[in-house]
Amino acid sequence: MNGFLLNKGTKILSEVNSQPIGHAIRIFTRDLEKRMTDAETIENRIKLIKVHNLDQEQYQIDVLSHDVMEIKASNDLGFVYALLFISHKFLKIKPFWFWMDQEIEPMDIAEIPIKTYISPQKAVKYRGWFINDEVLIDYMCEKYQSDELWDMAFEALLRCGGNMVIPGTDRNSRKYRQKAADTGLWITHHHAEPLGAEMFTRAYPKLEPFFKKYPDLFHQLWEEGIVEQKEHNTIYNLGFRGQGDYPFWSDDPEYDTPQKRGALISDLINIQYEMVKTHVKDPVCCTNLYGEIMELYNEGHIHLNPEIIKIWADNGYGKMVSRRQGNTNLRVPALPDSEGRHGIYYHVSFYDLQAANHMTMLPNSVDMVNDELHHAFSKGVRDFLIVNCSNIRPHVYYLDAVRKIWEGNAIASKSHAVQFAAEYFGEAEGVAECFSEYAKCAVKYGKHEDDHAGEQFYNFGVRVLASQWMKDHKNHSPQFTWAAGNVSFDRQVQYFKNTCVTGKTFTNLYDKCSRVSNTLDGKQKLLFDSTIFLQTKIHLYCIQGVLAFCEAYEAFAGENYRSAFFKAGQASEKFMAANTEMRHSEYENWDGFHENDCFSNCKFTAYVLKNLMSYIRVIGDGPRFFNWQRELFYTEEERRIMLLTNVRNYPTDDEIYAVMKKRKAEEIKV
User: In this predicted structure, what is the pLDDT of residue 342?
Assistant: First the structure.
């Protein structure tokens, strides 16, 4: 052997001591313990040497002999990336090893050839994740009284070459800020939480959140936020949006024109920028041109210091256009047309109460993601890229795609699927095809290339329409006009049905996944079944639930109430089946992971449909409630003799539905 012999006896000697380097050394040492056996223990050294001739985050690894390796870097992240590069390249610990259940097989020794390794240049200066809508992670941490998932999130981000994070939403962003900073990551902030300061309404719950009324209190909160983070590497997010994910003028009617709104936002951002400069030398600051803010900026109502990074956002579905706001979808291009400092806020997961994906993957292709991000790079977006990663595990496939892109690679759907499958499923046949086919099956709800539905489309669609049905089905649902238009309720339901019929292509993917699953065993089968196969089932069962729901309404409109009741029951069962599949996919580290699906919430959709069954029964069998009982539970002779209305307690909805299920369709005339 002529190279450096990496083994359990390898020691790291560092002339630099810091929290991030200590954290990286602990990860590397743990990786050695996981991978290496005790068969050979050779004492050799990896030396960490600080130099000043390398750029920030750059590293140089000089493998000098079988017992000496030197890692040179100019700052903490350079050393962190170098150690994680060795872990990935030679110990074969993959970027998402934890999130994708990598089985780490033992080895005696790993030989690293004698040569020099130089870190590659990244396509974007600041790149990272927004751990947002983190209801699954948060629930697991509370359930097990452990922050392991947060630790593993920060580690995975570093392994992906990320250097920046928004460490959670609202209280979590403050709670996990120090933990993230200790890994070496830069801290930045949610666009609704300027400067990472405590939100006004939390600090002063009894006061109206009006800047004009309480400027000193706002200034104080901002100042405290700046000071709290000035010792960290912080990218201060400047702005003034509101006390939540909506504009401030929703609370303050005084700002009733674009000019007034833009003037206030401009003034406050520049005030915040000057405040940061009083505490931080050469600060890095950004502001989000998101939603209504982008519209004001494009109309010339917002004026910013050129040093502030302007962050443009996709529409939540991976397309660089303005997002849909309720029923308004202007699709204004969301990219700069001038030079300057620019960045992107990009979603692989989104939550919009309409059609986005939270529990399932982005329903648009890797090809589209690649094209959108590289087009943004060509427009001068090179300073900042933060990705809404949600709860990470459902979105690893697309997070891995973005990792490759911010490393400077151009990728394609098919090749990415092949590489991803090889990385996490080895030589198992058919896995890559299942991943690459996923986006092709997605339901297309609109005319644009990115108008593909995540699981929220089925769940919110059913809940919105079921609510309208029970309230007033003679009028359309205003909450569904974004999708079906301002048409009658009947036509909204028909649109929903016609749209989701196209999703039956998930049946083919289901069959393909089933065949692949049957060829796998052990951990590999568990992983496959709880990732791409699970997501296929969620889509398919929810689509089947939508179609049964629409058929229930058609029967109801035709006054065939028993049939409507039965179809609503079938719909409820399908959504509950999707929830059941999520719960069945839980094991080991993921026990309880889907329990708090409180956003898409298939189980609640099933519950709403149960209520719809009761409503239909009231219309069809009320107010006496004995006709269905006689027709379904009594013999024909007993039904014809009407001396007593009923001889047993009224059955519940579930009991009626159970009898219907047992009978053939022709027997119960459905």
Answer: 97
Annotate 640-659 with b (16+ C-beta within 10 A) or e (fewer): eeeeeeeeeeebebeebbeb
H helices of 442-504, where?
Answer: 455-472, 481-484, 489-501
Residues 126-411, CATH architecture: Alpha-Beta Barrel (3.20)
Residues 12, 29: Cα–Cα separation, whole Å: 9
| φ/ψ (deg, to 5) at 232 | -90, 165
DSSP-assigned states of every residue in 211-229? TTT-HHHHHHHHHHHHHHH
Q: Is the pLDDT of residue 666 over 60?
A: no
> CA separation (Å) from 290 to 192, 284, 295, 313?
10, 19, 8, 6
- Find the angle CA(227)-CA(233)-CA(239) to the nearest 5 degrees: 60
Q: What is the pLDDT of residues 83-95, one digit of tens each?
A: 999 999 999 999 9
Cα distance between residue 286 and residue 308, in whole Å: 5
Rounded to whole angstroms, how far apart are CA atoms 394 and 396? 6
Tell me the pLDDT tens digit for each residue of 366-379: 999 999 999 999 99
Please tell me the distance from the alpha carbon of residue 578 to that of residue 582, in angstroms, as a whole number.
6
Query: Quick check: 386 pLDDT over 90?
Result: yes
State whether CATH 3.40.50.11090 applies to domain 4-118. Answer: no
CATH fold match for the domains 4-118 and 126-411: no
How many CB atoms neighbour CB 472 within 10 A? 11
CA distance 225 to 219: 10
Domain spans of the chain, in order of start: 4-118, 126-411, 455-621
Reported confidence tier of residue 641, pLDDT bands at 50, 70, 90: low
- Give per-residue pLDDT as tens, 439-484: 999 999 999 999 999 999 999 999 999 999 999 999 999 999 999 9
Task: Provide, rounded to the nearest whole percent, the portion of the chain with pLDDT above 90.
Answer: 86
Element (H, E) at 194: none
Contact 430, 515 (CB under 8 A): yes
* DSSP secondary structure letter of residue 94: -
Q: Which helix (H) or strand (E) holds 46?
A: strand 44-50
Please state whether the predicted TM-score (pTM) of the whole model is above 0.90. Answer: yes
Between the CA atoms of 642, 644, 647 and 649, what dihedral angle is there, to the nearest 10 degrees? 110
